[in-house]
Structures
1.
Amino acid sequence: MDVNLQALPALVALAILVAVFAAISRQHTEERVRLWLIGWAFVLVRAFVMFIHPNVEHWDNLNRAIGMSALELASISFVVSVAPKATTWKRQLVLGSVLGVPSLVYTYGAIWSVESRWFYITAVLVALCAGLAVLTSWYRRVSVYVVSIGLASTAVAAVIG
């Protein structure tokens, strides 16, 4: 097992940050603070994977998958925490799933060298369609915000796909 001592300061700092957010979440039971705590816990998981990882070649993909998944799930947790319409745990779960499942599938495909271009295009299209479906179901009126999010999502999907 290979220990990366250069990652130790970051690991300690993140552990302290998670502890601070845990203390804050005990005082403020607001769900959004808990989502931030979950996000920082995922960042800590990624730092831990970078700190302790087996020095065996066949573990590289697993380490990469855990590290990338943790970062993606952290960012999704942060995005869900500030989403204006994700006000209930069910909506938070729906938004997290819509954002998370396609991105994790795409990432795992890249890590395990899936060579089919259609695999990636399908993942991007599923993410776009699911995201637009959530957007239109949560915002029944057309507004500048809805149009901006829809166009930005479509542009990002076009660039990625």
Note: The beta strands are 2-3, 52-53.
2.
Amino acid sequence: MYVGHFGVSLALKKYDQSLSLGLLFFAVQFVDFLTPISIFLGIENARIVPNFVEASYLDLYDMPITHSLLGAFIWAIATYFVFRYFVLRSSSDTDAEKLRASLLMGIAVFSHYILDFLVHIPDLLIIPGIDFKIGLGLWNYYLPSILIEAVFLLGGFLVYNQTTPTGSDVRSKYGMHVFIVVLLLVNFMLVTPHPLPGVDILGASLILAALSAFLSEFLPDISGQDALTKELTRRNILDASLVVIFSYAAGYLIPMFVGYAAIPGFDTFIHELVFLLALGIGLLTAGITSYLVAVYRSSTSG
């Protein structure tokens, strides 16, 4: 599963408004961040197989560390302890608040395996070393794969939208709506049986971050009664969009270089990489500049 994981992040935000949405986005994709590293190091193994199933070209045939039930549980427990006793160690939060935030992060990490179970073919181990694999196999069917991603993402957004305060201005109220729509569009690029000039994913993610930054707006006026809630909304969108960049850059760039090197047209792929990186970075730079100008104007209008 791809963007559907982010629906879990959005829903979990309900239980701790102080917890960064970006951290929750990171947590639900944590094992996918580890996957390309483990493949690159030869710890795990996967293949790019065009038309492997209707909704994926990834044959994840040897993933005992990142995509097993026991592995997911261990990573979740490790995340809980790291946040509870290291990340939040010097926080001024109460013990109950630290416990809640750490539990939410652990749940977010573990949720990845549960959602993957719905779409993967039987390639998910229960216990490493025991050759028994599970998966409901929705990736065998293109339309259901697209729909289940949308259901989880939109369901999580519905919970988020009902429980997270926003400012009264148009951008604060609807910026996250546009963010979700763009995620759904990116999903159509991800759920595919063909290895795209796959770096389009990276380019789309960079553009997504810039677009989200513009829409969350750089609040030209961050003073007034709604300042806190508008800032909260802006931070949520920016945090989440930056993690989306990291997710698709770190999570797909390494295996793309490893896998596509043997595919005809790799030179063209490199040219697309340079072009899309330039475009994405340009848009992101424009967004950051716009934000700095807005903050400066706000501070000088005093």
Note: Residues 1-164 form one domain.
